[in-house]
Specification:
Blueprint (H helix, E strand, L loop, with lengths): L5 H14 L4 H6 L31 E5 L2 H11 L7 E5 L4 H9 L3 E5 L9 H7 L4 E7 L9 H11 L2 E6 L6 E2 L2 E2 L6 E4 L11 E5 L14 H17 L7 H25 L28 H8 L3 H19 L5 E3 L12 E6 L2 H10 L21 H9 E5 L6 H17 L1
Parallel strand pairs: 2-3, 2-4, 4-5, 5-8
Antiparallel strand pairs: 1-9, 6-7, 8-9, 10-11, 11-12
Helix pairs in contact: 1-4, 3-4, 7-8, 10-13
Length: 422
């Protein structure tokens, strides 16, 4: 397995800066969302839940790592992808899908998607070349790719490794098979589905994962995983009954952090992140976390959750959002009907006039995810018109299980008021 060298991270960062132009200053200028954009803790007590519901964890053997982007890097390494190789990746993407490809020394080659976000298999054929080693295929927003059997055959006939990207699809099935079981390898992102600040899944139903050696993270990582998760819940009005305990814990955390940083400065050590950058909402892939396992708190939270209840809540919230927001002029769901086997990550809606609606919604505190807003610069309308259109016009709204009825109503009413007034 590849061991990252000191200069590698800087080199990848330079390439990413060349490929992506991210408006972080604009994003930082908006106020914090008034309701949680991702799941937060709603109870201090956890019990074993219903894990019989299909999930990526039941797709095959798995390893729990610190983030989905780290899982992609492992999948690429296990697939033998390296310098001189090419990886087929959707023209509709986020930087987290691209950076691990650059880190292993390969180059991304972009394929088209259709308006329903399914892969354009005919275009895959046109982009196929002798150095293509792997295909990264995402289930966007939790919608299963409809032709996984055909994609599986296509890869097998050409000796291409199929990596199933389930970052948006922790749960679900396609044509009777669990999402994550179609690929040679599959990756998942529990942070999108559970109230945790770290976590990634690498799984395979076809190959051994013995080469992936992981060690527990340090004390600072374990502490921050717990306290930041509780702190996030408290900031949105949850766990009020344990406020005194949270306050004391945060004080301890801040003191520990201060002492650790002071000690590191005295020893002349660099600024190592206490948690993976993905946990802080950053865009960067950090190879220093390649061989660290998920925090113990996050592992317990995920494995102790009621998968069926989470899936049912997300599906119900998705249907509510679609039924209400579809009534607005110029606002259209990417998928109006939710397949029986799909569990959504978010509810993606296409806006005919994304501005000034986007800015006004963000200023009002509406939680908005903009997957694919920043595409690699070489993805033009000629490469994929759908991807370019969606990067400008599609906004995704949360439908997760921690949202209350009042929060859902506030979000829908605020969006409605802004769109109708634009």
């Amino acid at each position: 397995m590849k061991v990252p060298e000191d200069g590698e991270k800087e080199g990848v960062c330079r390439r990413m800066a060349e490929l992506f132009q991210v408006n972080e200053a604009r994003d930082r200028a908006f106020p914090r969302p008034r309701i949680p954009i991702k799941p937060v803790l709603t109870s201090p007590v956890r019990s074993e839940g219903d894990r019989a519901f299909p999930s990526i964890l039941s797709a095959g053997k798995y390893r729990l790592v610190t983030s989905g982007r780290v899982a992609i890097a492992h999948a690429l390494q296990l697939s033998g992808v390296g310098p001189g190789d090419a990886v087929l990746v959707s023209a509709y993407h986020c930087s987290s899908m691209i950076e691990p490809i650059l880190w292993v020394g390969a180059e991304p080659v972009y394929y088209r998607i259709r308006e329903d976000t399914s892969a354009d298999i005919e275009d895959l054929e046109s982009t196929m070349a002798g150095n293509v080693r792997a295909l990264l295929i995402p289930h966007f927003f939790g919608f299963p790719q409809p032709e996984m059997d055909r994609l599986r055959t296509w890869c097998g006939e050409r000796g291409v490794v199929l990596i199933e990207d389930c970052a948006h699809a922790f749960f679900g099935m396609c044509n009777g098979s669990i999402l994550g079981s179609w690929g040679d390898y599959a990756i998942g992102s529990p942070m999108k589905f559970f109230p945790v600040i770290d976590g990634g899944v690498l799984t395979s139903s076809r190959h051994s994962l013995d080469a992936v050696r992981l060690e527990p993270g340090g004390l600072s990582f374990q502490l921050k995983s717990v306290i930041n998760s509780v702190e996030a819940a408290r900031s949105y009005g949850r766990l009020q009954s344990v406020g005194w305990l949270v306050g004391a814990a945060i004080g301890v955390k801040d003191r520990v952090w201060s002492l650790m940083k002071r000690g590191a400065r005295k020893r002349g050590e660099g600024r190592g992140a206490a948690v993976p950058l993905a946990s802080e909402g950053g865009y960067d892939f950090d190879p220093r976390w390649m061989h660290t396992s998920i925090s113990e708190f996050s592992r317990r939270m995920i494995l102790g959750s009621d998968f069926r209840s989470i899936a049912e809540s997300r599906r119900a919230n998705y249907r509510l959002l679609v039924s209400r927001l579809s009534l607005l002029s110029g606002v259209t769901p990417i998928r109006e009907n939710l397949e029986d086997e799909a569990v959504p990550y978010v509810c993606p809606m296409k806006f005919d006039r994304p501005e000034p609606a986007f800015t006004r919604m963000k200023e009002a505190g509406v939680p908005i995810v903009r997957f694919g807003e920043y595409l690699a610069r070489d993805v033009t309308e000629e490469v994929c018109p759908v991807s370019v259109s969606y990067s400008r016009s599609v906004m995704q709204f949360p439908c997760h299980q921690a949202l209350t009825e009042a929060e859902m109503e506030w979000m829908i009413n605020t969006i409605t008021s802004i769109v109708e007034g634009s």
